[in-house]
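Researcher: Sequence recovery benchmark, item below. Answer with residues only.
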């Protein structure tokens, strides 16, 4: 079993009488982004879009870069992470520890990071995971995280609200697609 085979199926922790939290830190690299990194790369492998030794590139503020660097180290891919210079040194260190290369852009310039990612992917034939526009980001959370939450809450009662931080929006959109079918009056609250 590979470490990435343990992604998902994280605990749902009871915080108080009516408050629960999905404990995504249990994923191998420590964040929910392990889900999309694994899902997108599994899909690419299944469809012969990448092979061992190929290069994966992504623009990120950190956690997706860490997750892709982890997958790259596990499976023999080169990983290039384009990110603003002002992202935390801890995130950069994790990315480098997994053997990925960081390409810096100016502080806070995510638009430029995305442009550089796209340019380099096209110029070099690198696999662009494209987390911001890739429908697999949403599909991953619809088919995994959302289903897990439904299974873990079936004896709890109705879910009145889903509260999530947002980056790409894939997590909240995917989970919502699953939960709203069973809990149509559920409120969805995005925190930025």
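Model:
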């Amino acid at each position: 079993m590979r470490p990435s085979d343990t992604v998902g199926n994280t605990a749902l922790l009871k915080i108080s009488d009516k408050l629960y939290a999905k404990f995504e830190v249990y994923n191998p690299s420590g964040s929910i982004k392990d889900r999309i990194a694994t899902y997108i790369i599994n899909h690419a492998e299944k469809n012969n879009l990448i092979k061992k030794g190929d290069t994966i590139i992504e623009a990120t503020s950190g956690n997706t870069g860490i997750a892709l660097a982890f997958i790259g180290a596990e499976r023999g891919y080169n990983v290039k992470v384009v990110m603003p210079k002002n992202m935390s040194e801890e995130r950069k260190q994790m990315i480098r520890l997994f053997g990925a290369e960081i390409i810096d852009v100016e502080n806070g310039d995510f638009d430029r990071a995305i442009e550089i990612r796209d340019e380099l992917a096209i110029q070099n034939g690198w696999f662009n995971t494209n987390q911001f526009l890739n429908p697999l980001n949403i599909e991953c959370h619809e088919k995994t995280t959302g289903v897990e939450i439904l299974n873990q809450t079936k004896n709890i009662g109705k879910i009145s609200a889903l509260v999530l931080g947002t980056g790409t929006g894939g997590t909240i959109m995917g989970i919502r697609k699953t939960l709203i079918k069973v809990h149509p009056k559920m409120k969805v609250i995005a925190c930025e």
